[in-house]
Design goal:
Blueprint lengths: L3 E5 L5 H12 L18 H9 L3 E7 L4 E11 L2 E9 L8 H10 L6 E6 L3 H9 L3 E2 L2 H11 L4 H5 L1 E6 L2
Length: 166
Amino acid sequence: MRHVTIRPCTDADLPAMVSVINAAATAYSGVIPADRYHEPYMPLDELRGEIDAGVRFWGLFEGFEAALAGVMGDQDVDDVTLIRHAYVRPESQREGVGGRLLAHLEGSTQRPLLVGTWADAWWAVAFYERHGFTLVTPAEKDRLLHRYWSIPERQVETSVVLRRMK
């Protein structure tokens, strides 16, 4: 078993975070609507904007060299915690990285958890369902996305929301 550490990401981790996010996000190319996909998927200034908006990023670091294998953010908004920007480096996928990060974030809150993802990203929907989240109805999805997220209407149209009650 490799040495694994989960800790808050710092400014020093930003280059590795951008690398992980953009490498993992290539899975969206040709899957999500073309008008929603761009490269890089999340430029550094956008990542900084998410942090400034209150997203706390956690990283799973592997090995004694502390290589960043995955990142996941959480954000408290009103009475819920949103799971935001969950990405695992492609070569570390299907090794439990996402599950460990999600369990860490789940253990740090007593609030209901919500996650929004692209409707056509079936692998992401399946991941959250395996971890006890359930899809909400389309009407509830629209209500939740408008209440808790600040995203373009086109993204609302092409997304789903999953919920996990505590």
